[in-house]
From TrEMBL:
Residues 7-231 form the SAICAR synthetase/ADE2 N-terminal domain. InterPro entries: SAICAR_synt/ADE2_N, SAICAR_synt_PurC, SAICAR_synth, SAICAR_synthetase, SAICAR_synthetase_CS. This is Phosphoribosylaminoimidazole-succinocarboxamide synthase. GO terms for biological process: 'de novo' IMP biosynthetic process; cobalamin biosynthetic process. The lineage of its organism: Bacteria, Pseudomonadati, Pseudomonadota, Gammaproteobacteria, Oceanospirillales. It comes from Litchfieldella anticariensis (strain DSM 16096 / CECT 5854 / CIP 108499 / LMG 22089 / FP35) (Halomonas anticariensis).
Amino acid sequence: MEKRQELYAGKAKSVYHTDDPDRLILHFRDDTSAFDGQKKEALARKGMVNNKFNAFIMDKLGDAGIPTHFEQLLSDTECVVKNLDMIPVECVVRNLSAGSLCRRLGVEEGLELNPPTFELFLKNDEQHDPMINESLAETFGWATPEQLAEMKALTFKVNDVLKALFEAGGMLLVDYKLEFGLFHGQIVLGDEFSPDGCRLWDASTREKLDKDRFRQGLGGVIEAYEEVGRRIGVDFG
C-alpha cells in the first residue's frame, strides 16, 4: 500500500491518503494535549503505545462482532484503517462519576452509575465539543435517528466487552468516548480506543491510569498506559 499526501493532522494523530480510496493510514504521534490544546507536550513512546494499544482493543471488539475501521498494523506508529465518512457526534458512556459529569452536576468522583449514563457531544473544537441530544443531532443533520440508535447500541456493546476485559486486569473502566462513521452505508467504529480517550482506575487503589495523569500533572503518563496494556495482554515489543 502506497502512503500519499496528508489528509488531516489532529492533536495526536495524522491521517494520510493511500493509493486505495477506501483505505487510510493513521500515524500516532507522541504529541499530547489537554484543555482544548492549552496544555501540550511530546511524550516519548506515546505514539507507539497508543497505536499498539488501539490495535489490540479494536481486534477484541472485532472478535465480539463490533464493526471497526481498524485493518492492520503497519509499523510501531502506523496502522491501516477504512476510510469512513465520520459522523460529528461523540458517544460517551460513564460507569462511574468523574470529570465533567462531576463539574456539571456537583456530584462526588467515583460514584457507581447504575445504569451507566449515555451522553452525546458535538465534535467541534471551536465550540469546545458541546453536549447535545438526539433531537439536536437530527434537526441539524449531524446524524439520523437510525444512526443514533445503532451508535448507542454499539457503544453499550463496547461497554460490555471492555468492562470485562479491564476487570480481568484489575481495573475499572470509568468512562470513555467513541466516534463512528459510515463505510459503504454501514455504521463502523472509528478513531481510536486508548487511555487518551477513556478513564481507567486500578480497582483496588483507584489510582488513575489514563490521560488524567497528564491533565492533573501526576506524572508517569506513558508508564501508566503501558501498565494498563500489560495487564490486559498488549504486546508492546
